[in-house]
Write a structure and sequence with these properties.
CATH superfamily: Phosphoglycerate mutase-like
Oligomer: single chain
Number of strands: 6
Number of helices: 7
Largest sheet: 6 strands, mixed
Radius of gyration: 16 Å
Strand content: 15-25%
Distance between the termini: 39 Å
CATH class: Alpha Beta
CATH topology: Rossmann fold
Helix content: 25-40%
CATH architecture: 3-Layer(aba) Sandwich
Order of helices and strands: EHHEHEHHHEHEE
Number of domains: 1
Strand order of the largest sheet: 3-2-4-1-5-6
Length: 206
């Protein structure tokens, strides 16, 4: 049995003013760095074999910070990359609603049917992250591994583990620097934690 700790990256400027981030290579802001440190303290007592991260800066910065108390150096994995929003990358929800009204409505109401112009679909993301997890589970059998990724990746991975399709995308909460956990057993995966933010309580007052 392999155990995975799935972490969404910490806050960036584009999390405060909502934009479609996707492959935009954004750094953590000051709050995001503190969030990542809080995750590291939360995980410090655990026996973690490895930390893997999306290669995008906001995820890798989160991984670098949280890995310090664990005495580990993160490794990047393309399977953890954020979704490619294509032409929507960098746009605000208001801008996409104006430029692509029908597709925007579909994204809100039927996200599983959307392929972003010159970008990916949720199913594309689901396929590559499941492949990544399968390979990492084989490499780290009976070990605990931390994965640092993005909101879309975290949501679709959790849905897959729960046996739900991508139409349930908006029903999974996933805050910045949230912790999720799951185990891969011989019979079926077991999700043991979703969107846990207890480690961020003190930060919320700053």
């Amino acid at each position: 049995m392999s155990q995975f700790i799935l972490v969404r990256h910490g806050q960036t400027e584009w999390n405060k003013v909502e934009r479609f981030r996707g492959r935009a290579d954004l750094a953590l802001d000051a709050v995001g760095k503190r969030q990542a440190a809080a995750v590291g303290q939360r995980l410090a007592s655990m026996s973690v074999a490895a930390v893997y991260s999306s290669p995008l800066k906001r995820a890798l910065m989160t991984a670098d910070i949280l890995a310090q108390p664990l005495g580990l150096t993160p490794r990047t994995h393309d399977g953890l990359l954020d979704i490619d929003f294509g032409l929507w990358q960098g746009l605000s929800p208001e801008e996409t609603r104006t430029q692509h009204p029908e597709l925007f409505t579909c994204w809100i109401e039927r996200p599983h049917e959307v392929r972003f112009p010159r970008g990916e679909s949720l199913e594309d993301v689901r396929s590559r992250v499941l492949t990544a997890v399968e390979h990492l589970a084989a490499e780290h059998e009976s070990e605990t591994v931390v994965l640092v990724s993005h909101v879309v990746v975290c949501r679709v991975l959790l849905l897959a583990l729960l046996g739900l399709d991508n139409s349930h995308f908006w029903q999974v909460g996933q805050n910045t620097a949230a912790i999720n956990a799951f185990e891969l057993r011989d019979s079926a995966p077991m999700v043991t934690l979703i969107n846990d933010c207890c480690h961020l309580k003190n930060l919320a007052q700053e």
